[in-house]
Amino acid sequence: NAEEYKKRVEGLKTKWEETAELGTEAHKVLEIYGILLNKALETTEMQDIDFDAMKDEALKGMGNKSNYKQLLKGFDKFIKKITKGKKLRFEHELYLRDPEMGVAGIIDLVAFDEDGKAYIFDYKTKERGKEWLFDYESPDSKMGPPFEDLFDNKETAGALQTSLYSIMLERKGVQVVESKIIYLEADLEYY
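Request: output the structure for the sequence above.
Response:
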């Protein structure tokens, strides 16, 4: 039925737009939070920072604060893990390209410690309640060449993306200690 098909297509477009908007807002919240954290670290030790006050400041004017608070909580957990008494500096949307490899990308956030070592963060949105490994096609779906032995799911795609970022930075002489995907869960309707 053509009318049913049109309704389904419109529903999928709406869902895509909501997800894209959520991703854009999440990047903005994390960028603001990173800027606030950079400023705080200029004068305050990590253990003395009022993270709750920074969250409130970063979330001013944002809707859906509970989703973003969860995202910032994951961010804080990773930051506290990697800090270990070191000062960090944050770079947002770091553009990279490697002509020899024929790839380019934008790293959502890189934390550099005082030794110049890098920690890569990439943000992804996902539907609340979905598995972290949710597949694009089916549980047995595999990626195309040259990755045909890997399952085609969000976790694999994200791991490949952050691995490429790590390789690109290391080829530029930067030691990458760790990379992490931080998921933002959201409530989206099925169509």
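The longest strand covers residues 88-98.
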